[in-house]
Amino acid sequence: MLGGRFLELITAIKGRRAVRRFREEPISLEHLKKILEAGIWAPSGSNIQAWEFILVTDKENIEKIKLISPGLFDNPQALIVLCINKKRAEKGGRLGENTALMDISMAAQNMMLLAYSLGIGSCPVVSFNKTAIRELLNIPEHVDPVLILSFGYPKFWPKAPRRRPLKEVVHVEEYGKHFEG
Amino acid sequence: MKSMESILKDKHFQLLAFLITSARGCVDEPKLYGPLRLLDAASRLIDIMEDEGKSNDEILKLKELIEENIDVLMYDEEEFIRLLDELAKQLAKIIKNQKT
Ligand SMILES: Cc1cc2nc3c(=O)[nH]c(=O)nc-3n(C[C@H](O)[C@H](O)[C@H](O)COP(=O)(O)O)c2cc1C
Questions:
Q1: Scanning A53, A70, A75, B99, which has the fewest C-beta atoms within 10 Å of its C-beta?
Q2: Does the residue A97 lie in any domain?
Q3: Which ipTM did the prediction report?
Q4: CA angle, corner A76, sides to B83 and B36, nearest 5?
Q5: What is the pLDDT of residues B68-99, one digit of tens each?
Q6: Does residue A4 form part of some domain?
Q7: Which one of A20, A63, A70 has the shortest CB-CB distance to B25?
Q8: Which long-range contacts (CB under 8 A, 24 or more apart) does B73-82 make?
Q9: Arithmetic mean of pLDDT, A80-106
Q10: At CB < 8 Å, which residues of chain A contact B?
Q11: How many interface pairs between A and B have CB atoms less than 8 angstroms apart?
C-alpha cells in the first residue's frame, strides 16, 4: 500500500519546478535556515561534507550577482552559492572533487525540495561567471563555486518539461534490456 | 562620470555585463545557449530603446514574442528554432515597411 509519506514525497519530487519568475515577497530567515539545514543533511562520500554554502539576501548583492550570471532570471529574494571546499575534498583521494560535486548536487536537491514544501520556488543556476563571482564574494582560491540556487515565491509554477520515459532510461539486469514494468 | 550605484542600475551597463559574461559562458555551454543569450540581449536592448523613446508597437511586439517564449528551449528545441525564424520574419516585415 502506498500512501502517507510516500505520496507527500513523490508529490514534492514531481511538483518541484525550476522557477524563473518570482513575486516581490521576502523569505523569512526561519525558512531560509530550514532550507540550509536540509542541505547539510544530504549524504556525502565518506561523510567528508566538502561543501560551503554562501547565503545572499542583500538586494544589492543579489543585483551584483545577477549582472554576472546570464542564466539567473528575474528577481529572486535569496541566493545560495554552493561551493566545493577543495582542501576538504582532498580527503576523498583522487576522486575527492568529483565526489564533492555529487555531494553538492544532493544537498541542492534537498534544499529545493524543502523549499518546495514551504511553497518557495527555486532554480539551479550553473550559468554564472565563476571568476567574477569569486571576486564579488571574496571566495578564496581553495573554494570553488559550482552552483547557485535562486529562491523566491513563484509568480506561477511552470509546466513540467518532458522526462525521458522509464522504459527508455531504465535497463533491467543488463544494459539494453529495457524496463517493461 | 556616473556614480557606481547608478551604474549598477544603468540598463546599458547591465547589458554590457550580460554580454561579457555570456561571451565567456558560450565557450563551454550547449550550442543553443548562444542564440538564447542573444535573444535575451535583444529583449534587453528593446527595453532600453523603449526607455529612450526609440521603440514602437511593432518592436515591442518582438519583445513580447521573445519574453513569452524565452524558456521554450527547455521544452522543445525545434519550437525554439521556429521562434527564431518567426522573429526574423517579423523583423523583416518591420524593415520592409520602412521608408528610407
Ligand atoms: C546542474 C543544473 C544547472 C542548471 N542551470 C540552469 C541555469 O543556469 N539557468 C536556468 O534557468 N536553469 C538552469 N537549470 C534548470 C533546468 O533547466 C531545469 O531543471 C530543467 O529544464 C528541468 O526543469 P524542472 O527543473 O522544472 O523539472 C539547471 C539545472 C541543473 C540541474
A1: B99
A2: yes
A3: 0.88
A4: 20
A5: 888 898 889 999 999 999 999 999 999 999 88
A6: no
A7: A70
A8: B73/B32, B73/B36, B74/A18, B74/A161, B75/A159, B75/A161, B75/A162, B77/B32, B80/B32, B80/B35, B80/B36
A9: 98
A10: 18, 20, 60, 63-64, 67-71, 127-129, 131-132, 158-159, 161-162
A11: 35
The full set of domain ranges for chain B reads: 4-99
Average of per-residue pLDDT across A120-131: 98
Contact in structure between A111 and A41 (CB atoms under 8 Å): no
Question: In chain B, what residues touch A68 (CB-CB under 8 Å)?
Answer: 17, 21
- φ, ψ of residue A59 in degrees (nearest 5): -55, -45
Selection from A104, A123, A115 nearest residue A30 by Cα: A115
Q: What is the pLDDT of residue B70?
A: 85
Give the predicted TM-score (pTM) of the model.
Answer: 0.94
> Which domain covers residue A160, as residue numbers?
9-169
Q: Indicate the number of domains in chain A.
A: 1
Q: Which three cell numbers stand for residue A64?
A: 551584483
Give CA–CA dist B47/A96, Å, rounded. 46
Measured by CA distance, the residue closest to atom 27 of ligand 1 is A17
